[in-house]
Amino acid sequence: MRFTQGSQGAGQSREQERDTGKMSMRKKSSVVPPKIGDRRSNHLAPTNVVRQSANSRISSVSTVSFMDEPHEPMRGPPVRLEPTFQLKPNKKFPVVQVKNILKDVLESYLSEEKYEPELCRQMTKTISEVVKARVKDLQVKRYKVIVLIHIGQLKDQGMRMGSRCLWDPENDTFSSYEYKNNSLFAIGSVYGVYYE
Question: Which domains does the chain possess?
Answer without folding.
Answer: 5-61 (no CATH), 95-194 (3.30.1140.40)
